[in-house]
């Protein structure tokens, strides 16, 4: 196996550019809010900057650790077990806005569901590396492969966080597909999920109202349709060139969560079509280089790791941008590398460190 002199420079550059854009836009979208809440315009920026520095340090460290070190069962099952315990432990903490998503220790908080995604990727890569040729054996390969993903997704749904659970299952489906799973099994899985999804959406009022708002946000413009309406106003206001960095108006207590879930709307308003398109191009390059690595490596373990990490980033980006543009119902999914949030940023950067290491060992 040929050893590269350095990592994939395209991939490495794209990651750093996305983090830089994220820092700039977190400050732009949160400065007024931070001043109002904490007395300092730099409050959110400084926190994000700290997490970005820690995440990049973790990425550089992991990037120089041979990915084959993670093939040990002790590492895989310890990580999977710890993630499961944390997802259970989160219910021991007080809820926030009606959900149990955070483990808090003083000023620090951590979202265990972010760990579920790399835990699923690592387990599937480990389990399938020697079994992918028997992927059609649904009883001895397919079901044991998917079972941990389903368990973690159910715990995440219980928090409740349906969006992240769906992202976890999409990552699982991506790896199983690359492993050779026939499309009929994916169809069976989708059919089996229809009834649970029906109860999770139709019989949970706020989710059902999100569907109604997605179909016709103007039916309740001051209520459930408010998020998507304000997002579309921000996007349309930006036009081609944008209103200018720091000059956006929707972030001024109109657009909910302008520095987290709806930061892409602020990008579109302030930087316009060019800025919004640049973000899409950067994620497209990430997808291209990630898929390229997965297809070129001859090691099944590396192939599944690369596929999962690429899917983890791209699926979340696709969901987030689709929500902002009114193409999907509202979900609380951050924009990778860009949205404010320490757990997401740190874990995503550490995960792509593995992908960067794989690029050094690809023919």
Short characterization:
The relative contact order is 0.17. The protein has 363 residues and is an all-alpha fold. The N and C termini lie close together (6 Å).
* Overall strand count: 2
Structurally, the number of domains stands at: 1
User: What would the average pLDDT be, to the nearest integer?
Assistant: 91
Helix content: 55-70%
| Uncertain runs | none
Number of continuous helical runs: 12
Percentage of β-strand residues: under 5%
N to C succession of SSEs: HHHEEHHHHHHHHH
Q: What class do helices, strands and sheet pairing give? A: mainly alpha
Rg calc: 20 Å
- Globally, the shape reads globular
End-to-end CA span: 6 Å
The main β sheet shows up as: 2 strands, antiparallel
Instruction: Provide the spatial order of strands within the biggest beta sheet.
Output: 1-2
Structural description of this entry:
This protein has 363 residues and is an all-alpha fold. It has one domain (9-359). 67% of the residues lie in helices and 2% in strands. It has a two-stranded antiparallel ribbon with strand order 1-2. β1 (103-105) and β2 form a beta hairpin. α1 (9-38) packs antiparallel against α2 (43-63), α4 runs antiparallel to α5 and α10 packs antiparallel against α11 (300-324). It is globular, with a radius of gyration of 20 Å. 44% of the residues are buried. The model has no long low-confidence stretch (mean pLDDT 91).
Topology (elements, then pairings):
Elements: H1 9-38, H2 43-63, H3 73-89, E1 103-105, E2 108-110, H4 113-128, H5 138-158, H6 162-178, H7 183-202, H8 205-215, H9 226-238, H10 263-296, H11 300-324, H12 342-359
Antiparallel strand pairs: 1-2
